[in-house]
Here is the input.
Amino acid sequence: MINVEPTLNDHEVMQFIHNGYITLESIVDVDFNRECESVQGGRLNDFVLTDEFRRNVLLHPEVAGVVRSLLGDNFLVPTNAHHHLFEAAHRGQTWHSDGLTEYGYGITHLQCYYYPKEVEIEDGPTMILPGSHHRLVDREAIAHYGDILGQLSLTVPAGTVAMTRYGIWHKAGPKLNDDRRGMIKFSYFRTAMPKRDWMRDSDEIPPYQHAGRHPYVTEVESYRDRRRGELTWNWLCGLAEVEEEIPPIQMFNSGIPLSEIQLQ
Ligand SMILES: O=C(O)CCC(=O)C(=O)O
Ligand SMILES: [Fe+2]
Here is the structure.
């Protein structure tokens, strides 16, 4: 099996639990970014199955290192992807979470956004709401929200990969120009029960440290966030308090186990 080393430590995993995302800036090779800039919009199934896409993006050591840390050994590597390509100016999407967002506390699915080209504010960056991944709500119930305190526009350099909890609230932000803005979206899934799959400084499991309130969170909801974070942390450390379906229900995505991939 291709060797993938975990890259996150205890603190970084706790941060991911709290924020629901991590960004790896400018990690993809410049020439490969350029190649991806001109790819067509929509489904990209054949392209993501190429060794080139796997080597440069899906199994890039930094990307795969985060996946290995959060989803464990022999995760499912994406076999399809969608290119969210915008050209004409638009008003932006409404806040939503995607597809069949899972209910559970375990981390069984990572959804990633790869930006081959730099995204500036006028290009209509993806916007996310850090910490919103635990608020599983009716899509229509959040669609009317305007700006939310703490929202983040992913204005990023070329070659950035953002890795998110599937349930995070997000949208394409308003776009003011007619330039191409691409984002290639794909998902990884867990196949094995968690056992503190990241880098360890010591074998002693530290207790979950709640990082405090996101700007839009009130006191009581913050207690709930703390407890949800603790449930996720304990589960990831193999101290199961909750049960999860592994791999999670797959509606739009599929994948191939890492162990079945051979790069030429
Ligand atoms: O393109 C983006 O920035 C986000 C697109 C998106 O979230 C969607 O179409 O579901
Ligand atoms: Fe979306």
